[in-house]
Predict the structure.
Amino acid sequence: MNEHIAEAKRKLPFPALLHRLGLGDRAKKSAPCPLHDDQHNSFSIYKNQKGEWRFNCFAGCGQGDEITFLELLKAISNKQATKLFLDMAGARAQRGGHSICTGCPK
């Protein structure tokens, strides 16, 4: 894993990301999925055996980490979701005092 992504995941773990997105009520083991119109608790966040935060939608939206969640939630590419996550966590890579994250949201 890229060191900047690892830093971002330490700074903004999945539960904190959900809170920042206004989805704090979904930051638990069983909740309605924010990725689809869900009338049942099909969404879960948890730490895997490596201690990494993950999500799973048992209705089929997907599973993955914070970046995959942003990709699905915002309907953006993985590259855009990575840039967004780094920006939200305040963990953009710097080179010579300038962000190397071209195209990152301001």
Residues 94-106 have pLDDT under 50 and may be disordered. The chain is about 35% helix and 15% strand. The helical segments are 3-11, 14-20, 66-74, 78-89.
